[in-house]
Specification:
The chain has 92 residues and is α+β, with helices and mostly antiparallel strands. It contains four helices and three strands. A hairpin with a 2-residue loop joins β2 and β3. The protein is elongated, with a radius of gyration of 29 Å. The mean pLDDT is 86.
Length: 92
Amino acid sequence: MTIVTIHEAKTHLSRLIARVLAGEEVTIARGKEPVVKLMPVKEIPKAKRKLGHLAHLIPPGKDPLEDGFWDPLPEEDLKLWNGEVDDPNDAL
């Protein structure tokens, strides 16, 4: 176990973090009194992504890209998209 002062910890924080990540215990002291310990944060396991978990929201036999998905934008929406109108209410 390593004990360092607050001043040493501020000066060499990167090195101390590397030592902690390598498995060493590091305690920071105010004067000679230990006040805190540096320790690694537990890594939270990432949840595996599950494809198709929203498939129940699309009716069977229905293609979500039909019904005008590929149609050109209306002129009002196009002006808003291109920044030609400052106030969205002006385009309507």
